[in-house]
Amino acid sequence: MTVRENLTTFMGREVIDWEEDAKPRDPKKFVYRFRVSYDDGEEKMTELLASFIQNPAAAKVEAMVIGAWGEVASGDSSQPIVEALAAARDRLTNLKYLFFGDIIAEESEISWINQTDLSPLLEAYPKLEHLTIRGGMGLSLGTPRHEKLRELTIQSGGLPASVIHEIASGELPALNHLELWLGEPNYGGDATVDDLAQIFKGDRFPKLKYLGLRNSEIADDIAAAISLAPILPRLEVLDLSLGTLGDEGAKALAASAAIKKLKLLDIHHHFVSPEGVKALEGLGIEVDAEDKQEEHEWRGERSRFISIAE
Amino acid sequence: MARRAKPVHLDCRVRRKRETIMQTQSAITPDARFVVIGVPGGKRIELFQAALLRLGREPARVVSWAELSAGRVTLEQVVRPDDIVRIDSPGRDFEVDRLLLAAGADAADEEDGERLRYDHLDRDSAARVAFDKGMILPSRQWFLGFRRVLGELKMQLWRCPRHRMMNDIDDIITMFDKRACHARLDAAGVTVPRALGPVCSFEQLLAGMRETGLRRVFVKIAHGSSASGVVAYQISPAGHQQAITTVEMADSGGGLQLYNSRQIFTYRDSRQIARLIDALARHRVHVEQWLPKAGINGLVFDLRVMVIAAQARQTVVRLSKGPLTNLHLLNQRSGAEAVRLRMGETRWAAAIAECRRAMACFPGSLHGGVDLLIAANFRQHAILEINAFGDLLPGVLCAGEDAYETQIRQMIGMDAGLPTAADSAEERRVGS
After folding, report:
1. ipTM > 0.95 (yes/no)
2. Residue B205: is its pLDDT beyond 50?
3. Looking at beta carbons, which residues of chain A come within 8 Å of B1?
4. Which residue in B236, B296, B323 is closest to A5 by CB distance?
5. Does B217 contact A at CB distance below 8 Å?
6. Whether the Cβ atoms of residue A109 and residue A70 lie closer than 8 Å to each other
7. A22 to chain B, closest Cα gap in Å
């Protein structure tokens, strides 16, 4: 599931690219994406942002999309963008929904996107309810404290364990949706199931209804651990999709008593046998088990691949 | 943000009526006969003949590449006064490949001794080379043979009665050299991806990338057709490397052999990539910046635009899951209307105009298949290649006709001012 296309909609609004001399359009219908060309530098991106931020219409904007901020494939970091956005806190006074890194594989492979410490954004925007980040390399959230943040998604080909610990030790009382694409170790996804223990306890996020631990090489371990975890009975949706879930994990899930409280178990892109899928479907909850994968065999070794790594 | 324009819907009835008029006209136009140099029995000839038939013309006389390359036939024996001569692809005929390789075996190579000795077979080995599906033959040698035979045809044509060429022979030769073609377009100010200088090894590739600051490049066999021998190579800031290609490496008794496959391979190991690039470089490669292509409907795309008689006509969007977009890789094709809408009229018109400017670099030629890149931001564009034989686009229509019909009409002076790609997006003939 390589990301090949930029967002066309975000938070129910049509996404259009902001251009310096554009006349702002209805913020209820349109979301501006800020992006520069492959031959522009990061300075161009901050200029572009500035041209919007200075516009009085900026105060009305609730949603923004940050696209390619420079030569992203060459390692241009998101840091100047974070600084520019954080500095605009007095202008973007209604910002609630932010997609940070709408970058497609043709612009940069997901695990080559050079992210940075995004905690200044959480500090600068107390009304923020939704934050999606693409790219895990270099990423940090500091110790996130935020009263309003309801949805946090990090799409990556490799999410550092340090980021998981940051989230788990943060204070996000409103968090309803936590979606982490864990990725694989070659691309910085070094988390083990132990790194998730804090999240599994369930006391950090009292309002959590959706937990996505997606695109993971340790999907079986995660399934085994979460099937006994205190957080499970409180969830409505458990999303283990895009990863390497196999029969081992499916068995653990099927044997869990708490899992029957879910509204949806999403495991699409998986390696579970038809029998295993049947067992899950027998739980009486909705199960998305589309996109069954086959193990690759090479020189006698069998291996499973997550959906997005590079 | 460009304003969205309403899509242009051609009225089918009007189109059909125009066609009828055309056919009536064709019946009263003096018959110029077509001679096609090609591969008898192939799809290209079949479709060209079908186009002639639809226009009420007599079938073209076909001269086989094999016969000509072997010297068993000369064009003086074939071309008659006022004929129109079309040179089509010699591809998909292994006997021709063998003959062209043999013809290239002792052809002078202006690059010899300068940098790198390209892969080479002597005349006897070339004549005996066995068919091995997908095997990449020594393509520099093939090109030298192709150029030599075309040079011979040029001499023959010079001795023929007065006739007209659809495409100029020297133009065809340049289009078959990706480096030369890129240089010509670049010199004319056409927007093309930035190119690296000659690259003869992986080491030189890395040096060139360091020098230019490029981290993503396409390495293409300079004389390859379609996606033959194309690698999308990138190095990440963290030092990861990735080479995406359809080229498969196989170790045989005689060393490393490269094969074109329908599969996509991703090499990540530096030594593997070095072997691949080194082996490709022995075929002579063109290296250029890998510009980010736009995505639509969840897929990456570029466009093939047929420019015929200075107008953009049949246009097809080549959709792909990865950076290699090519019809021969069985990628999906679709119409250009959605792309046009996303770009807006002004930018679409600019991209189409670029295709025409590119083709204008080959004033001696009626037509070329221009590969057009639309950047990820749907604002910028670049010309990737011009394909001399890029017109095999079955079912891709413009104003109701395929590329062959448009070409024929133009050659026999039947231009009725039909809409071009700038006016209407490509259509497809249903069921074909």
Report:
1. no
2. yes
3. 16-17, 19, 22, 25
4. B296
5. no
6. no
7. 7
The sign one gets for the Cα dihedral A225, A231, A237, A243 is negative
> How far is A104 from A134, CA to CA, in rounded Å?
10
Buried b (16+ CB within 10 A) or exposed e, A137-152: bbbebeebebebbbbb
If residue A166 lies in a helix (H) or strand (E), which one and from where to where? helix A161-168
Sign of the dihedral through C-alpha A267, A268, A270, A273: positive
Output the CA–CA distances (angstroms, integers) from residue A119 to A71, A115, A126, A145, B106, in the order listed. Answer: 23, 12, 12, 9, 67
Query: Taking the model in full, what pTM does it have?
Result: 0.89
Amino acid B50: pLDDT: 97
Determine the average pLDDT of the residues in A14-28: 92
Shortest Cα–Cα distance, B112 to chain A (Å): 36
The pLDDT of B373-396, averaged and rounded, is: 95
Rounded CA-CA distance B423/B349 in Å is 9
- Of B306, B317, B321, nearest to B340 (Cα)? B317
- Cβ of A104 within 8 Å of Cβ of B238? The answer is no
Please report which helix (H) or strand (E) contains residue B145, including its range. helix B139-158
- Other CB atoms within 10 A of residue B280 CB: 29
pLDDT at B104: 94
Would you say A207 and A146 are in contact if contact means Cβ atoms under 8 Å apart? no
Whether the predicted pLDDT of A240 surpasses 50: yes
Question: Searching chain A, which residue's CA lies closest to the CA of residue B380?
Answer: A37
Q: Could you tell me which of B347, B293, B373, B1 has the C-alpha nearest to residue A14?
A: B1
Q: What is the pLDDT of residues B295-345, one digit of tens each?
A: 998 899 999 999 999 999 999 999 988 899 875 655 677 789 999 999 999
Mean pLDDT of B73-85: 95
| Residue B239, pLDDT score | 84
Task: Retrieve residue A293's tokens.
Answer: 């994968």
